[in-house]
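Re: Re: ligand-bound prediction request (bumping)

Still looking for help on this. To restate: I need the protein modeled with 1-deoxynojirimycin bound, output as structure tokens. Inputs repeated here so nobody has to scroll up.
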Amino acid sequence: MQNNNQQPWWKNSVVYQIYPRSFQDSNGDGIGDLQGIIDRLDYLEELGIDAIWLSPVCKSPQDDNGYDISDYMDIDPMFGSIKDMENLIARANEHNIKIILDLVLNHSSDEHSWFVEAKKSKDNRYHDYYVWRDGVKGELPNDMKACFGGSCWEWVEDLGQYYFHLFSVKQPDLNWDNPKVREEIYNMINWWMDKGVGGFRLDVIDQIAKEPDLKITNNGPKLHDYIREMSRETFQKGDLITVGEAWGSTPSLAKLYSNPDNSEFSMVFQFEHIGLDQEEGKEKWDLAPLDFIKLKKVLSKWQVALHGYGWNSLFWNNHDLPRIVSRWGNDKEYRVESAKMLATVLHCMQGTPYIYQGEELGMTNVKYQVDEYRDIETLNIYEERTQKGYAKEEIMKSIYAKGRDNARTPMQWDSTDNAGFTKGEPWLKVNPNYTEINAELALKDDNSIFNYYKKLIALRKQYPVIIDGKFELLLEEDPNIFAYTRTLEDTELLVICNFYGETIGCTIPEQYKKDKELILCNYKQSVSEEVLQPYEARIYLMK
Ligand code: NOJ
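Reply:
Sorry for the wait, this slipped through. Here it is.
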């Protein structure tokens, strides 16, 4: 049964995120590339996904692995060429898979020709493409801090001015108040649309309307005007999926972003659930145990608030986040069970699920020596905290738990050298567990995490209640169980998951003790309806 086809296609779609430099290398240089992705399209079709979100592949000095673009209309040679991209779009289409590009519009690289020109003089026509303040060397315009450490302001001696950068010094922020910047961006987006891409993910989009003098970064006053204008000038001319990265989003802002009138985006990534295992008011590196009750309440709040008014994105993982099975599951004795349980919790909610490469294999976090990490954020926090006097073990504990390279280790394809990712030297060390955790083994095993994801994706296509049903959280205060229902007309789905590694009693509410059909479970056999084994997850259809 297909979903009501009046709906946008992305409402019953599942998106797979590829971090291109770590997915598949086809030419032996140790870095994944577009041809490598083409070579793996059969695998992705087998999984059943509808679209691929590619982290940036445009030309870039790679200071932040491509999130620092020096030419928006060219592909970085390390990944291939424009021809390869056209080929990828066409070949993916043959597999019914759309390609979603990552648009980094808050900042460019300092090696972008616009910035090279902008730095030449105050009256250069590109000077105003960036955010500048006059000043005196050593007297910063204010104390705003960049995300990768240090000040947001960088001095340019020849101009007697500071430029603003929310991320590294090599990522100067674009000035969205300048209509010429917006026009260049819209032309570029339309150019990619003409090439047949299926949509865009918009990097830190809630920061584009910053007001540095007021120390406003997220949700600046002109943000939604700019987004609506961009949508009108570009996205609305196609049938696209668009997803904005919006760390500062709230459910009411998300209703604007994902307004069903299509005036902004299809949806946003919100991160409220992602911050629930860090000390309140501190940084992600300041670890705290997960507040499970809060996790349920937060996810439920988003489900309820957007139902009928907007659309959720559903994700545990991306290229910036640690591996979920290591984070909130158990990557040792219950790796398989807990990975499937976490997938169940997420995939039965309302919204568009995103699977990050390797999540479908239950890939895990890594513990490397400092000099084996490559991520700018990880290396900078190590330096910063060392200088502040933190003990090395404490810093490493944070990096093991939250470092971005956890997600970026090469995809584990098989048990051959370097997990079949490259014939050369991988740019980042492969997780040593690749001989036990890899795609080749997963495809052969009926009980693998991969095959469970495949079933979850198939269920989404089969049951409209998973797409459109109303969400209700059950057992809100239960310290172990994540349970909820989805209801659409007379169809009701019941999801019950044991979020932890102990066997527990399943205190299912009376009205659900009646006749029901178990449509998926991560154990071959349940002990009984009243008992949940470690990380047991069940999906029932009520009769
Ligand atoms: C968010 C991206 O996901 C991250 O990887 C990147 O470092 C920053 N934006 C800066 O572009």
